Structure formats: structure tokens, C-alpha cells
Amino acid sequence: MQAITTYSVLKTTIEQVKSSGKTIGFVPTMGALHKGHASLIEYAIENCNLTVVSIFVNPTQFNNPSDLKKYPRTVERDVEFLSSFKENVIVYVPNAEEVYGNIISSKNYNFGTLENVMEGKHRPGHFDGVGTVLNKLFRQVTPDKAFFGEKDFQQLAIVKKLVQKERLDITIIGCPIYRQEDGLAMSSRNTRLTKHQLEIAPFIYKTLLTIKSQFKSQSVTYLKQYAIQEFIKKEGLELEYFEIVNEKNLKPLSRKRTHQKYRAFLAVYAGEIRLIDNIALN
Ligand code: AMP
């Protein structure tokens, strides 16, 4: 498989495909591809005639420079990984200039309540960076549908808002979280975990499952305290936040209401590696 690295080549390829009435699916990634990404690509292949997978480590969405520096970059391996999909998949690997031009900066979006909690609260500027790069990539790739993982559920909500704000005619599709057999959500950052950290990290999902099993019978205050205490007891994992929010607007839950859907979210540090996960509660 040959990676496309310039917008001009991408544009020509896409124009050819569109002129024959075919649909374009898009899976934006930051590379270090794994089975979680593959599951999104499968959805795109099922739903569209041509799937574009982009690999671009977006500098403007990293609030921590060391995280950006250490983010795994494995482009050659990734292109090989994508070759297994055979037809109807192309890979776009632009450099920063191809995406941003000469000035690498993010636009100031106001995503309202969606960005004031969890990832938005703990990673200032993160969603402005995500919104900026996706707006640029969406305009280059011009997909009919774009596929995002519920692993980054808050990002998925932000992207739905972004296409409204930017008036883009793209259907945003959320795909389920792909987990290892031991429950750990697949993530590019997992490649940085030590053997010991890989052994203890499945505790994250186990705790989420326990919380889900108690959601009906226990209060939100109890469940929050439970999560905090569990991670205090667990050596090697440090809880950054735990929240239970309404799935629709991501507002923290104070009182359970019927006919509303709730989800628990957390961010945990294993050493300096930050892991996030979430689970539907009802
Ligand atoms: P990333 O390369 O981490 O920016 O992720 C690219 C896309 O893959 C995003 O839409 C993520 O939500 C999605 N993704 C990452 N990990 C998983 C996973 N374990 N299951 C499902 N989707 C995922």
C-alpha cells in the first residue's frame, strides 16, 4: 500500500472516486494503529465505497509537550497494518504543513457545556485542537461519513457539535470500544506501558463494571467515593477524575431520572501514561 502524503494527490484520488458516484468513509487517527482502529475501519468499509484512514499526530491537541514528544509514531508499521484490508482503503499521512499551512495554531471554538468537564477540564485547549484539525481534515477528505470510537466518547460528542458549527454535511458515526481480552481498552498509549502496568491496568475496566452493577441500587455520591477509594488502594494507578454524566449533554449527574442515559468516565495515570475509559451505566 502506498501512503498519500500530499493534499493535491488526495484531492485527485477523491475527485475520481466521487465522480463515479461512490461514497467516502473517513477514519482519522494519530497512528500506532491497533485493533480498536481496525474495528472503526471495518465499520467504514461496510458503510462506504472508499475508506480514507488518516495518520497525523496533531500538535495542537496536546496540552502536555512531553506527551506529544513521546506519543508512539510507527507509520511504516501502520501502513503495513492497513495493507491487510486490501481494497477500498487508502491512507493519508500528511505533515503539519500539509494540514495547517505555515501557522500551526488552533481556532477558539466554544463547545459549551461539552468541553467544561472531564477531558476538556483536565486538558485545557485539547478540544480546540481536536476541532481545528478535524475541521481541516474534513475539508480535505470531504467524507460522507466519519467514524469515531466511543473510547473517546467526549470527543465524539464534540465532533458532532463541530460539524454543526462548521456546517459540514458529514454523518458522524460512533463505534463501540474495542477491548483486550482482559478488559483493557485498546489504546496507542498502551504500547508505552511496562509489563507490570499492563498487568494492573485491567483494574480500570473491572472497577467500571462494578460501578455499572451498582448503578441502580447506589447513589452517585456513593459510587464516586467508591471509585476514588478503589484507586487509592490500588498501587501503580492514580485516578485523575471520575465522573458520572448524562450521555446527551455530558452534564454531571446529581439526581437519576428515568428515560435518561448515563455513563461513567475516568482518567487514570499509570506512571506518566494517561489512560481513559468509560462505560454505559443503563
Ligand atoms: P487515536 O489514534 O487515539 O486518535 O484514535 C483514533 C480513533 O480511534 C478515535 O475515534 C478513537 O476514539 C478510536 N479508538 C481508539 N481506541 C479505540 C478502541 N479501543 N476502541 C474503539 N475505538 C478506538
What are the SSEs and their pairings?
Elements: H1 7-19, E1 24-29, H2 35-47, E2 50-55, H3 65-70, H4 75-83, E3 89-92, H5 96-100, H6 118-122, H7 126-141, E4 145-149, H8 153-165, E5 171-175, H9 195-200, H10 203-214, H11 220-233, E6 238-246, E7 262-270, E8 273-280
Parallel strand pairs: 1-2, 1-4, 2-3, 4-5
Antiparallel strand pairs: 6-7, 7-8
Helix pairs in contact: 7-8, 10-11
The protein binds adenosine monophosphate (AMP).
Radius of gyration: 19 Å
Low-confidence runs:
none
- Small molecules in complex: adenosine monophosphate
Q: How many beta strands in the DSSP annotation?
A: 8
What separation lies between the terminal Cα atoms?
A: 43 Å
Task: Explain this structure.
By secondary structure, this protein is an alpha/beta fold. Helices cover 40% and strands 18% of the residues. It has helices at residues 7-19, 35-47, 65-70, 75-83, 96-100, 118-122, 126-141, 153-165, 195-200, 203-214, 220-233, and strands at 24-29, 50-55, 89-92, 145-149, 171-175, 238-246, 262-270, 273-280. The chain has a 5-stranded parallel beta sheet, sandwiched between helices. Strands 6-7-8 form a 3-stranded antiparallel beta sheet. Helix 7 (126-141) crosses helix 8 and helix 10 (203-214) runs antiparallel to helix 11 (220-233). The longest helix is centred in the middle third of the chain and has 16 residues, at 126-141. The termini are far apart. The mean pLDDT is 96. The site of adenosine monophosphate has 17 residues, from helix 2 and strand 4.
